[in-house]
């Protein structure tokens, strides 16, 4: 393909405007005296129990003082408001329960405010306290995890369970709590087998029986106990190819970017993979009792999942390589084996610990490694839309944030639906409706906020790679290129975030003679096979599963890093999302819907990415880029160059899209706001930058007094029709760290005065600690028209300059 045009720089107009704080929430009106006296009594009882347990609270979080406030479903108290009561928020769940830690055991501030609220003492009304329904201690049921609720520990059962402790903010203190867990287990003859302390997670793997479990469920520094995660490797072996006449480039370019495949291992001597594997390691359990052998042994025993993922990660489109009979790598490979011969994690080792060890080892030793692919998931942990973040997903986000300066993109598969509740006939007749059912939601760790999650597409009717034709009795369930794979899992993610963000080819399922064939001949995507050795081996096989869509995106990210070596991980994510398009060929249930319709978004995300669109601008499609850092609590204004009149008058549709990627701190105990910092954007037309600034900035007291009251202050509402109606709206896209919205423009009905557009980028603190003062981000603005003859690039280049592939640092 001929070389395209370099992207342009997105001009920054104004930086550092202080953001106006949000207004307060609604609160209920009730019998304040009666309600207040009940709360005072509860607070007094709790304070007495806390006083007896501890004489004084240390500097960090003392879990002995942790309790919860149950809020009315229609009320709320912000972290700042609770802080004025002497309380520090540790967690919020979707049921309006706030777990807090007081600054002192007497709860003096809380009780003082409640007594004034109830009228027991004179003072302020404190009407906002009507949001509190009850004040209570944490109970064993508060500490019981979802899987353990569904499958309680039997009376004679001893099992390795995950025990999460309250993270005190001090790693030494967390380790002291871990030692206490070990001491509590000694009388039962049980022990801690592993532990892992992150920036906001403190995890223990321990052997527990029913008696020990009951002891820990009543222990104040225990946050939650649950059954351990189980990996769900999905691999359908369709048919294996023989290809003896291919050309393999045994030495790839020196500047290939590395992809780490965290999986079951890789067959390192495979002819197609041997020259691109930089290192392969095993991350076993501590006592090396479960995960034994070398880097290949897990994959050899478990069906070749890791080898199949690796072939796609290194070459991208393996089918195209087979068709061309030439294998030219576009990424180098690294392998971390984390499962045993039975495709399971260690019983005694925390998978979070294994991931930490693996990621630290490879990032420390291989600077060219910039992409991590995780094609595994726990099908028993299905996101229900209102709970806390899964722990494994939270650990991945924790690690992504910890290593953010290494500019690493993490890619995770969405997971596969097993269709246990549907007959073969229903799979055909109800496709694709069932992929929106609650049981088809994303699984752990696909809800990770800082990783790219990838769903699956069918590649359409294929051919038997042995050269045979498709028979009349066979029918693919999706059967059309670009239709959702019948096993793909769908969003949304935590907080309603758009997940999966993108999709790619993952294969299909075959309906034959009234049944779904376990090894369909034409449903999969080709990749490398583990059983390659002669005389009976074959180099290639076909597979089906979202596990094999993820490495296509990992390969794409590696190729983009190679083209933009100074890019941040945020910019690579933004370029991938900007290049994504929802296939126009869609099932009947989806074909008439807009790309921003909820069912389209939860199925396709932003669509299927494309390397050429991400790498190059074209005459009729121009990308403007900013890759930078801004202060938390501020607003930046960017100027999008004036659009030529031909953008509206030329036959065909024009599009303006804005894509934002950022990498904030996360905390899995916050179901209300998993992200510690949130960002959003507003696009305005027919208005000056100063007017937009006035609508968003903080006003001084003198300015407020001059206007008379807050209602006179300019706001986004006062800008009226100047705010461009981007889809999806800010509420839908705002919960994600990767946000894309678009505005179609057709004809002169779109009122536009020909002046530059103003893009306002807003960065707000949710709960992030005050020492975090800056937030990294990348913006990609795409101006595109369907007519290839319209030269937008030259007109926009006149008003800006070519992007230099170097991040702008502030």
Strand-helix topology:
Elements: E1 8-9, E2 12-18, H1 32-53, E3 67-71, H2 79-83, E4 87-92, E5 97-102, H3 108-118, E6 132-136, H4 146-150, E7 159-165, H5 171-185, E8 192-197, E9 202-208, H6 210-217, E10 222-227, E11 240-241, E12 247-248, E13 258-263, E14 277-282, H7 297-301, H8 305-315, H9 318-324, E15 326-327, E16 332-337, H10 351-365, E17 369-374, E18 378-382, H11 391-402, E19 409-413, H12 424-429, E20 443-444, E21 452-457, E22 474-476, E23 502-505, E24 510-512, E25 515-516, E26 525-528, E27 540-543, H13 550-563, H14 569-579, H15 588-591, H16 598-604, H17 611-615, E28 621-631, E29 634-640, H18 646-649, E30 654-662, E31 677-684, H19 689-696, H20 701-707, H21 730-733, E32 738-745, E33 757-765, E34 774-785, H22 792-797
Parallel strand pairs: 1-28, 12-15, 13-16, 13-17, 14-16, 17-19, 19-21, 21-23
Antiparallel strand pairs: 2-29, 3-5, 3-6, 4-5, 7-9, 7-10, 8-9, 11-27, 18-20, 22-24, 24-25, 26-27, 28-34, 29-33, 30-32, 30-34, 31-33
Keywords:
810 residues; alpha+beta; Jelly Rolls; Alpha-Beta Plaits; seven-stranded parallel sheet; five-stranded mixed sheet; 34 strands
Please explain how this structure is put together.
- The chain is 24% helix and 23% strand.
- By secondary structure, it is of the alpha+beta class.
- It folds into four domains: 195 residues, Jelly Rolls; 107 residues, no CATH class; 86 residues, 2-Layer Sandwich (Alpha-Beta Plaits), CATH 3.30.70; 362 residues, Rossmann fold (3-Layer(aba) Sandwich), CATH 3.40.50.
- The strands form nine sheets. The protein has a seven-stranded parallel sheet with strand order 14-16-13-17-19-21-23, sandwiched between helices. It has a five-stranded mixed sheet with strand order 1-28-34-30-32.
- Helix 8 packs parallel to helix 13 and helix 10 runs parallel beside helix 11.
- The chain is globular.
């Amino acid at each position: 393909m001929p070389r395209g045009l370099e992207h342009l720089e997105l001009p920054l107009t104004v930086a550092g405007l202080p953001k106006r704080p949000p207004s307060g929430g609604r609160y209920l009106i009730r019998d304040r005296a009666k309600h207040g006296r009940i709360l005072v009594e509860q607070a007094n009882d709790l304070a007495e129990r806390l006083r007896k347990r501890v004489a004084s609270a240390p500097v960090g979080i003392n879990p002995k003082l942790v309790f919860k406030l149950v809020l009315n479903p229609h009320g709320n108290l912000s972290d700042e408001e609770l802080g004025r009561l002497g309380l520090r928020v540790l967690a919020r769940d979707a049921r309006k329960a706030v777990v807090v830690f007081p600054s002192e055991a007497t709860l003096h501030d809380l009780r003082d405010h409640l007594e004034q609220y109830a009228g027991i003492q004179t003072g302020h009304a404190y009407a906002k306290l009507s949001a509190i329904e009850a004040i209570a201690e944490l109970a064993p049921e508060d500490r019981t995890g979802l899987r353990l609720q569904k499958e309680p520990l039997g009376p004679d059962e001893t099992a390795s369970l995950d025990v999460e402790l309250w993270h005190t903010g001090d790693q030494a203190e967390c380790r002291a709590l871990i030692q206490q867990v070990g001491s509590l287990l000694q009388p039962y003859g049980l022990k801690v087998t592993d532990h892992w302390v992150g920036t906001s997670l403190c995890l223990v793997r321990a052997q527990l029986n029913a008696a020990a479990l009951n002891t820990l469920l009543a222990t104040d520094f225990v946050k939650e106990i649950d059954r351990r995660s189980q990996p769900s490797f999905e691999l359908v072996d369709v048919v294996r190819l023989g290809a003896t006449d291919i050309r393999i480039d045994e030495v790839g370019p020196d500047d290939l970017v590395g992809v780490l495949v965290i999986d079951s291992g890789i067959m390192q001597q495979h002819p197609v993979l041997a020259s691109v594997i930089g290192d392969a390691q095993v991350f076993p359990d501590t006592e090396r009792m479960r995960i034994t052998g070398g880097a290949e042994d897990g994959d050899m025993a478990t069906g070749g999942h890791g080898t199949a993922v690796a072939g796609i990660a290194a070459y991208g489109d393996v089918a195209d390589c087979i068709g061309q009979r030439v294998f030219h790598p576009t990424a180098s490979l690294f392998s971390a084996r984390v499962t045993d011969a039975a495709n399971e994690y260690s019983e005694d080792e925390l998978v979070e610990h294994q991931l930490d060890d693996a990621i630290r080892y490879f990032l420390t030793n291989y600077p060219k490694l910039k992409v991590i692919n995780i094609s595994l998931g726990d099908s028993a942990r299905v996101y229900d839309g209102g709970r806390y973040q899964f722990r494994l997903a939270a650990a991945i986000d924790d690690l992504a944030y910890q290593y953010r300066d290494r500019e690493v993109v993490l890619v995770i598969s969405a997971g596969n639906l097993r269709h246990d509740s549907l007959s073969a006939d229903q799979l055909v007749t109800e496709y694709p409706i069932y992929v929106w059912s609650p049981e088809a939601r994303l699984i752990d760790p696909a809800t990770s906020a800082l990783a790219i999650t990838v769903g699956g597409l069918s590649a359409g009717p294929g051919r038997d790679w042995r050269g045979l034709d498709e028979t009349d009795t066979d029918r693919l369930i999706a059967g059309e290129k670009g239709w959702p794979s019948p096993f793909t899992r769908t969003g949304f993610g935590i907080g309603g975030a758009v997940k999966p963000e993108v999709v790619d080819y993952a294969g299909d399922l075959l309906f034959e003679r009234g049944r779904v064939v376990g090894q369909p001949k034409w449903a999969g995507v080709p990749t490398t096979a583990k059983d390659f050795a002669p005389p009976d081996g074959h180099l290639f096989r076909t597979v089906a599963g979202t596990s094999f869509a993820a490495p296509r995106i990992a390969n794409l990210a590696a190729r983009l890093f190679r083209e933009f070596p100074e890019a941040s991980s945020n910019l690579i994510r933004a370029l991938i999302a900007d290049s994504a398009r929802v296939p126009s060929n869609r099932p009947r249930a989806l074909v008439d819907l807009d790309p921003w319709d909820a069912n389209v978004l939860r199925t396709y995300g932003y669509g299927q990415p494309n390397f050429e669109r991400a790498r190059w601008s074209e005459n009729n499609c121009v990308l403007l880029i900013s890759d930078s850092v801004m202060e938390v609590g501020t607003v930046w204004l960017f100027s999008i160059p004036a659009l030529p009149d031909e953008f509206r008058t030329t036959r065909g549709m024009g599009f303006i899209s804005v894509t934002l990627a950022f990498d904030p701190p996360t905390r899995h105990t916050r179901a209300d706001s998993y992200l510690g910092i949130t960002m959003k954007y507003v696009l305005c037309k027919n208005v000056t930058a100063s007017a937009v600034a006035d609508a968003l900035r903080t006003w001084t007291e003198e300015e407020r007094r001059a206007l008379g009251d807050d209602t006179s202050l300019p706001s986004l509402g006062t800008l009226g029709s100047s705010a461009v109606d981007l889809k999806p709206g800010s509420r839908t896209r705002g919960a994600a760290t990767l946000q894309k919205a678009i505005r179609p423009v057709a004809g002169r009905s779109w009122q536009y005065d020909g002046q530059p557009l103003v893009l306002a980028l807003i960065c707000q603190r949710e709960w992030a600690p005050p020492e975090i003062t800056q937030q990294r981000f990348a913006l990609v603005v795409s101006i595109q028209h369907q007519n290839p003859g319209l030269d937008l690039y030259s007109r926009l280049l006149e008003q800006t300059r070519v992007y230099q592939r170097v991040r702008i640092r502030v």
